[in-house]
Amino acid sequence: MTASALFGTYARSDLDFDRGEGVWLETTDGRRFLDCGSGIAVNSLGHTHPHLVAALKAQAEKLWHVSNLYHMSGQERLGRRLTEATFADRVFFTNSGAEAMEAAIKTARRYHYANGNPDRYGIITFEGAFHGRTIATIAAGGQAKYLEGFGPKAPGFDQVPAMDLDALRAAIDPNTAAIAIEPIQGEGGIREIPADFLRQLRSICDAEGLLLIFDEIQTGVGRTGKLFAHEWAGVTPDLMAIAKGIGGGFPMGACLATEAAAAGMVPGTHGTTFGGNPLAMAVGNAVLDVVLEPGFLEAVQRKGLLLKQKLAAVVDAHPAVFQEVRGRGLMLGLKCTPPAGEVLAKARANGLLMVPAGDNVLRVMPPLIISDEEIAEAVARIDAAASALEQQMSKEGAVA
Ligand SMILES: *Cc1c(COP(=O)(O)O)cnc(C)c1O
């Protein structure tokens, strides 16, 4: 291979995929892989889903782009469907997750500004969070490894330990505008925030006049077996960022808001050239056609339980490799004892893809359309990978 022309930002595997169908991916040299990563929780309906392909092709032959200078019926339709299915009254479409979080942050600040409190701009977030890679969202995430070398951390973001209500209350001051949290930390290692904690956040926000922002970029659009993960806790936010699954592989995101929270976002306050592009809207609407079909989310819940049970058996069978399985729906994580990268490599050698995360966890996030047979196959491959790694570890142990 010649030297790459690309930025060196990714430690890429040299697997080179050429095509995909359902949960399966095939490399240019004809090797088949069972995709339990869905990109990174993006291909919610698997690869080349016929309904998405048809929707994108039909739109491609009609209209690609006009800009947000004009009425866009695809945006109106997807916006209406998202508000009808959620707490929200208003939607702003973006191209990515970070851009959706940026919109949520700006909307929260503008809400207080419009209500005569321009000094309320502070956003409180939680340790282990991930909200994106822009200058504002690395400050929101607060992780040193993402902030290092990029100048001063953008002001107005404070992190407190997750699940620490005392620290949270202590961090709230007259400048605080909002609290932002992922209902399940994804990049952080599939760490579920207990429902009770989310409910406490809601009541603190109500008592203090703060807005509650949920980052459902990874947890949303059916991933946990509800349309959005916060539904499990029975609380709703004022603002929510979504992306990943809503496009099923087409780049798009959105910021959802209540009428009150969005009130400050008047003409001229915010914008994007590409956000809400007709191609993206056609695919987003097609994803919702499938995810909102009666029984679809119940099937995700059932398959999530099946996969979690089977993975629990694999964890029990390989105590030297795995410590636990955690998560909800088809957003599961395997906590590893050896470096997760070694388990990942063995899984790849067995034709299965997962996604590494923080806390030495491997994320198991197959497309939501995975069948029971494919779940059994995925678990068998993870089991075989763990056995192979155990053998290698005992050989190395014998040598050492
Ligand atoms: C992926 C992700 C983001 C960032 O989304 P991009 O599309 O990569 O900008 C933000 N928050 C969460 C929870 C994510 O999983």
Automatic annotation (TrEMBL):
- Entry keyword Membrane: no
Q: Name one GO biological process term.
A: L-arginine biosynthetic process
What GO MF terms are annotated? identical protein binding; N2-acetyl-L-ornithine:2-oxoglutarate 5-aminotransferase activity; pyridoxal phosphate binding
Tell me which cofactor or cofactors this protein depends on.
pyridoxal 5'-phosphate
Compartments, record wording: Cytoplasm
InterPro entries annotated for this entry?
AcOrn/SuccOrn_fam, Aminotrans_3, Aminotrans_3_PPA_site, Class-III_PLP-dep_AT, PyrdxlP-dep_Trfase, PyrdxlP-dep_Trfase_major, PyrdxlP-dep_Trfase_small
Keyword annotations for this protein, in alphabetical order, are:
Amino-acid biosynthesis, Aminotransferase, Arginine biosynthesis, Cytoplasm, Pyridoxal phosphate, Transferase
Part of which pathway?
Amino-acid biosynthesis; L-arginine biosynthesis; N(2)-acetyl-L-ornithine from L-glutamate: step 4/4
Q: How does it assemble?
A: Homodimer.
User: Additional comments on file?
Assistant: May also have succinyldiaminopimelate aminotransferase activity, thus carrying out the corresponding step in lysine biosynthesis.
- Protein family per UniProt: Belongs to the class-III pyridoxal-phosphate-dependent aminotransferase family. ArgD subfamily.
Q: What is this protein called?
A: Acetylornithine aminotransferase
Species per Swiss-Prot/TrEMBL record: Polymorphum gilvum (strain LMG 25793 / CGMCC 1.9160 / SL003B-26A1)
